[in-house]
Amino acid sequence: MTQVFDIIGYIFVALGVLLFFFTVLGLFRFGFIMNRMHAAAMGDGLAFGVTMIGLAFLNGPHISSLKFIFAGLLLFFASPICSHIIARYEVEADPRLKDECEVDEVCR
């Protein structure tokens, strides 16, 4: 049974590394700062969460596995919130933003 958990863990860790790679690729590919922040917020939260689930499978049924899962959930929820706060400050600080994208007056 532990071999099955190891295989599942390796698959999740490999998927997390692949998601991290696509996140970094999105950071370099997109030119506009808001698109980069979206790629970073969504990508790293998901990649870190999947990697932590994989590490929990590899660790087995211990209390530290629960810590891995809680750390993944924390970043999964906190990263988009922090990115949203940074994006709101970017909307307030950049006067050229209306030229690049549509900005609601509620955001200002």
List the helices and strands and how they pair.
Blueprint: H1 2-29, H2 33-59, H3 63-93, H4 97-100
Helix pairs in contact: 1-2, 2-3
Notes on the protein architecture:
The chain has 108 residues and is mainly alpha-helical. The chain has one domain. The chain has helices spanning 2-29, 33-59, 63-93, 97-100.
Compact summary:
The chain has 108 residues and is mainly alpha-helical. It is 83% helix and 0% strand. The chain has one domain.
How big a fraction of the residues is strand? under 5%
For the CA atoms, what is the radius of gyration? 18 Å
What is the total domain count?
1
> SSE string, helix = H, strand = E?
HHHH
Using DSSP, what is the number of strands? 0
* Alpha-carbon distance between the two ends: 56 Å
Q: How is the biggest beta sheet arranged? A: none
SS content category: mainly alpha
Number of helices: 4
List its salient traits.
4 helices, 108 residues, mainly alpha
